[in-house]
């Protein structure tokens, strides 16, 4: 049942090309227009959306942060992302034109469910991005966008994370299409690039050995830091979470821009720092600022490990190890840059002899608040 792999986690990491493909499957009509037919909110209602609030926990919340960058960019609708368990305790401002998007693999996370119920009571329209057909959160929501990623067994979420990000892109593009915010040619270009992602993930999986070798070498490391910026920020957070849950190593993710506001004080000789580098073809200055961050931590003795776009010559000089990922649009990069971090955490925990499918103290779905 593990399909020849040592763990469900390894199997699910390797299923990611298919998970992304299946999330994309059947979402366009003959004219190439997006059709999200499980949406039981009318196009007119969706068009009125004045604000989106994304609610989720853990890895799903990091997918929500990626969603924020993409949806705001494509639709110009303001998007807030909030940990579901914080949401209803702050008296949030919600009305009929607020679209609350919950993201949950299991569809049973109690914190997320209670936040969705609260949002509904306050009059918001609710849409669930979920992997588990017929689970509670989608049943209680006005609309559902299923991931179709197949069952995820390992406690640590991997393929569902990539599928959640993919589904969020589809939602963003759908809203942009409805509101006439992007030309149909722009939407089909982005969709075409999304359809190329599975093969690119496969390339990373096929070249995973050096990442695993590094993980084996680093099995004794007591702490690892992760830096990212823009959509690389939630990827850094996710890389850190994977390492905490699986390898029980102290790991921390930061927005690279925060470094000089405090975290750089942590850097001492030999401290491993992963840096998720934005595309050099993206927004000017973003890439060069992150390259400066790599130099800054390296100058203070950090062991720098970078995840960068293929051909990004600027990072090589300042990196102890570089893992390249294929090119794609800057906003789509998390679908690629996450993968080396998942492989790293899984391999390191395996090297330490831990059960990667059932990490201590954790449950696959958290059904208590
Ligand atoms: O089922 P959900 O997506 O609602 O679960 C949310 C979190 O509990 C989950 O992502 C958790 O953080 C995972 N252990 C991450 O690997």
From TrEMBL:
<feature type="active site" description="For Fru-6P isomerization activity">
    <location>
        <position position="364"/>
    </location>
</feature>
<dbReference type="GO" id="GO:0004360">
    <property type="term" value="F:glutamine-fructose-6-phosphate transaminase (isomerizing) activity"/>
</dbReference>
<dbReference type="GO" id="GO:0006002">
    <property type="term" value="P:fructose 6-phosphate metabolic process"/>
</dbReference>
<keyword id="KW-0677">Repeat</keyword>
<feature type="domain" description="SIS">
    <location>
        <begin position="42"/>
        <end position="181"/>
    </location>
</feature>
<protein>
    <recommendedName>
        <fullName>Glutamine--fructose-6-phosphate aminotransferase [isomerizing]</fullName>
        <ecNumber>2.6.1.16</ecNumber>
    </recommendedName>
</protein>
<dbReference type="GO" id="GO:0005829">
    <property type="term" value="C:cytosol"/>
</dbReference>
<dbReference type="GO" id="GO:0006047">
    <property type="term" value="P:UDP-N-acetylglucosamine metabolic process"/>
</dbReference>
<comment type="subunit">
    <text>Homodimer.</text>
</comment>
<dbReference type="GO" id="GO:0006487">
    <property type="term" value="P:protein N-linked glycosylation"/>
</dbReference>
<dbReference type="GO" id="GO:0097367">
    <property type="term" value="F:carbohydrate derivative binding"/>
</dbReference>
<keyword id="KW-0808">Transferase</keyword>
<keyword id="KW-0963">Cytoplasm</keyword>
<keyword id="KW-0032">Aminotransferase</keyword>
<dbReference type="GO" id="GO:0046349">
    <property type="term" value="P:amino sugar biosynthetic process"/>
</dbReference>
<feature type="domain" description="SIS">
    <location>
        <begin position="214"/>
        <end position="359"/>
    </location>
</feature>
<keyword id="KW-0315">Glutamine amidotransferase</keyword>
<comment type="function">
    <text>Catalyzes the first step in hexosamine metabolism, converting fructose-6P into glucosamine-6P using glutamine as a nitrogen source.</text>
</comment>
<dbReference type="GO" id="GO:0005975">
    <property type="term" value="P:carbohydrate metabolic process"/>
</dbReference>
């Amino acid at each position: 049942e593990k399909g020849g792999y040592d763990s469900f986690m390894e199997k699910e990491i390797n299923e990611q090309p298919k998970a992304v493909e299946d999330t994309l499957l059947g979402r366009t009509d003959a004219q190439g227009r997006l059709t999200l037919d499980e949406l039981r909110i009318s196009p007119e209602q969706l068009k009125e959306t004045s604000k989106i609030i994304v609610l989720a926990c853990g890895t799903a919340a990091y997918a929500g942060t990626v969603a924020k960058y993409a949806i705001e960019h494509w639709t110009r609708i303001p998007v807030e992302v909030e940990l579901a368990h914080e949401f209803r305790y702050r008296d949030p401002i919600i009305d009929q034109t607020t679209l609350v998007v919950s993201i949950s693999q299991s569809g049973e996370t109690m914190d997320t469910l209670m936040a969705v119920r609260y949002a509904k009571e306050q009059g918001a329209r609710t849409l669930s991005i979920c992997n588990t057909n017929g689970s509670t959160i989608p049943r209680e929501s006005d609309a559902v966008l299923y991931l179709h990623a197949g069952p995820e067994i390992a406690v640590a979420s991997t393929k569902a994370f990539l599928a959640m990000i993919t589904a969020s892109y589809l939602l963003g593009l759908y809203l942009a299409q409805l509101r006439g915010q992007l030309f149909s040619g722009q939407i089909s270009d982005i969709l075409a690039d999304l359809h190329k992602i599975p093969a690119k993930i496969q390339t990373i999986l096929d070249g995973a050995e050096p990442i695993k070798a590094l993980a084996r070498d680093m099995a004794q490391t007591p702490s690892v830091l992760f830096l990212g910026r823009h959509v690389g920020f939630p990827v850094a957070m996710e890389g850190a979470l994977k390492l905490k849950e699986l390898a029980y190593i102290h790991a921390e993710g930061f927005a690279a821009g925060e470094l000089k506001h405090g975290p750089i004080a942590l850097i001492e000789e030999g401290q491993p720092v992963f840096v998720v580098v934005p595309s050099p073809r993206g927004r000017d200055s973003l890439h060069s600022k992150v390259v400066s961050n790599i130099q800054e931590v390296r100058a203070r003795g950090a062991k720098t490990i970078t995840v960068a776009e293929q051909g990004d010559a600027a990072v090589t000089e300042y990196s102890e190890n570089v893992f390249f990922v294929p090119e794609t649009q800057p906003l789509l990069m998390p679908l690629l840059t996450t993968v080396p971090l998942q492989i790293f955490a899984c391999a390191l925990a395996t090297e330490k002899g831990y059960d990667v499918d059932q990490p201590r103290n954790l449950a696959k779905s958290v059904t208590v608040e």
